[in-house]
Protein: ABC transporter substrate-binding protein
Organism: Candidatus Kurthia intestinigallinarum
Amino acid sequence: MGEIGMKKRFSLLALTATAALALAACGGDKAADDSSKAESGDKTYNVGILQYVEHPSLNEATKGFKAALDEAGLDVKYQEENAQGDASINTTAANNLVAAAPDVIFTNATPSAQAVAAATSDIPTLFTSVTDAVGAELIDSMEKPGGNVTGTVDTHPDAIPNTVKFLAEELEAKKIGMVFNSGEQNSRVQVDRAKEAAKENGVTIVEASASTSAEVKQATESLVDKVDAFYIITDNTVVSALESVLDVAEAKKKPVMVGELDSVARGGLGAYGFSYYDIGKEAGEMAAEILEDGKKPADIPAAYPANLKFEINKETADKLGIDIDKDWDAEVVE
């Protein structure tokens, strides 16, 4: 081979070696980037959501839960199920979520929390919109949940006693109608607490049960001529059909106190309540601790709503001919 040919060959070898080194360097940079991402925890988390039924309060709780994970900067892929208020669908949806083996499951309302808790003792599970988490056998205690479940409850210790006292003292109701689904554990607990408060205030609770939202209107009609006012607690079945209660009660000029602020906005006279968005968000913050920090649900205390406030719907009060007393210390909403 001549001198010129040799020079060309060496030049080509040098170019090939340079290109190989460049590719290796790029590969090294990519590996370093991937390693950096792994070290920083940049991963996609799979999160299951089971909501028992569609209504504004539960919807707000789910929004709050998602907002907490978003604010934590987590990349989340959701698998969402809605039981549509049906026990059979609820059980099937819970089993479907557990079979998918997500990193955590968020349950919204007592029946959904119970269904998921029955389906898994391993997957970390968060709940909200649950009235009595201990009575529902979801946790051992608020302070030390135990097991794989924790979350936020949707009852403040003062809400029911304050509402019954207001109905008795300020609205002078002697008989208070309560429409609820007796099959919902959270509702039974609230009715029992209302009865205790009624006894203390010298008034009577009159009950009517509705097992589906389609039965709510008829249940309300069965009470409207027997009571002076209604108290609608945070019962998923009845709240999903709240307008049926409001229409029947308004026709007879009977005030309806409710158990959540979202229901005041829908036309309830008033409520001692809190934001469902906030309790959903707090459950989401717990989920972030589990996903990011590796905490166990058993080590995260369950929580009560932080803030209780009294709201009165002015438009509803005007329709009923009720003057809003400044001594009620209520936040008036239009």
Q: What stands out?
A: Residues 44-154+275-299 form a domain with the Rossmann fold fold (CATH 3.40.50.2300). The chain is about 45% helix and 20% strand. The first strand starts at residue 44 and ends at 51. The two ends are 97 Å apart (CA to CA).
